[in-house]
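Retro notes - structure team

What went well: the batch runner handled both jobs without manual restarts.
What didn't: labels got mixed up in the shared folder, which is why I'm recording both outputs here explicitly, each with its sequence directly above its tokens.

Job 1
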Amino acid sequence: MSRWTLGSRKDVKMRVSPTRLVVGRWAVGALAAGGMTLALGSVPVSAASSPKQIVQQAITASEAATAVKIVGSVAEGTQTISLDVSATTSGVGEGTIGIGKGVATVRLVGGTVYFMGNTKFWTQQISASAARLFVGKWVSTAATTSTGAPLAQFLNSGNFMKQLFGSNLENSKFVNAGTAHVGGKTSIVISAVGKGTKSEGDLYVAKSGPPYILRVSAVGGKGQAGALTFSQYDQSINVVAPSGAVDLDTLQSG
């Protein structure tokens, strides 16, 4: 296994936390709710609900869903993150994550993250040496390691939703902006402006059935902007671990 050895095995870890980039300042200031304990997950929103109540119900329902597909991109300064993932609360998930020009196909199953990145992904996240060794190969690591955790967070739907909407609802002003269609479904559009910030955005909430969040878009200061769509709530997914993956944890401890 010596041919896999890098200059320093301790270098094999992600240099950025993709989740922090996606769920950081750009969305929290404008579209945020934390500490909610409302038991409204399956109750459709009503015409009498205030914009703030609709946001509360939507976040509660979406956080309680067992699975969701997330697609979109977020820019923060010169960094762009793109997502096309199916995430669950049961420890399995899969999809594609882009960080700048780097792209990785990722799977989470059995507490292990499997990923296969292109040359840019490995060069940006680790080093050119890592790119030469690992490009085009499946690599595995525990979901709790410094390498696996940033990727695994995208595939844990409950954790993702809580981080995305994990601030205080009182920090934003909400207004009803009418209706729109998202993925063939009618949604109620709630516009939000962060108090004392440059953040603003729109939350699209399913008008019928459970008030799931169907789309969120937001802009903020310092080049922060993005949009994410959410679909296929509560649909089960079957993730299979790829064969022949290089065990990164064994390399680092060898």
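Job 2
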Amino acid sequence: MTFRKSAKSRGKIGEKSQKKQFIRYLIKQYSLNLTPFDLHRKNYFMKSELLKLLPMLIHLFSCQSKEDNSSPQTKEGFIEVTGGKVWYRIVGAEKKGIPLLTLHGGPGAPHDYLEPLEALADERPVIFYDQLGCGHSERPSDTSLWTVERFVEELSQVRTALNLEKVHIMGQSWGTMVAVEYMLRKNPENVESLVLSGSYLSTGRWIADQQNWIAQMPQNVQDTIYKYEANGDFSSPSYQEAMMHFYSKHLCRLDPWPDCLNRAMEKMGFEVYLYMWGPSEFTMTGTLKNADLTEQLNQIKVPVLFTCGEFDEATPATTAFYQSKIAGAEMHVLKGASHSHQVEKPEEYVQVLRDFLKKTEKK
């Protein structure tokens, strides 16, 4: 495992020095005792206006300096896991709160689109990692690595390597299955809570929900999807266009998509996604076709928060069904949002998580 500091802190000393020098210059140049003669000088108006602005400028620079001083420390590096090395990033590494370990979706959709969670790093370390096969992590070609068991073991290895004794775990989409499987298979100690966003815990329910969403689409979109699902030509431009129409309603409703989501798509591990899932969110051809954890959810004993969007691929109805299986679990639906509700409604999402994490820590 290797560490290296983020470049965010570079140049801070120089920037602070320049700001102080500029403030001193303003004070020296414009904090003058004006005489009657100054009233006739052409630059009087400029001086008087700058004097009015001086307190604001000093406040602005002092606030910026405070922000610089409080910028979360960032560390990143690689961890050796079964099958290769995975890349990780810790934001707020110096914070004393219980860390939040995040698990991205896919399989194969790297961490970038979870970046709104960095807002929680003002109180606690927030840890991202790209699972093997995507993002900045290594991409082995051995398909025997693409199993639920290995991804659960990978999570355990990441936690051990980063010495996360107490931890909150947040999973999104496929990451929720990894999180719940980790709890069921490993029975780990000191997991303070689970946050399960856009939950994928049953392939059967997931596919049924996508079929219901497709049935609400224009007839020509439905016909295109069913045509190419039947003939297996998933690379057809017509199928891809229909797929993007679906995604614009249920994967991310923002137009254009935010940079963090685009970056995740660009670094996607499509080999893993195709092998374990399939050619699209609503077409299942992979090894996860029989995955279903619903009857084991009652074994989860830690506090759980479910979140979903109003138009989520993980529908509010299915999310409520999962919630009913875990005693004391909470649920929050973000109105007008979809599967990527953490980027569509970042302020609301972060506040809901912040409140939940604090509440669990008070118990």
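One thing worth noting from job 2: Residues 44-70 form the longest helix (27 residues).
We'll revisit the folder naming next retro.
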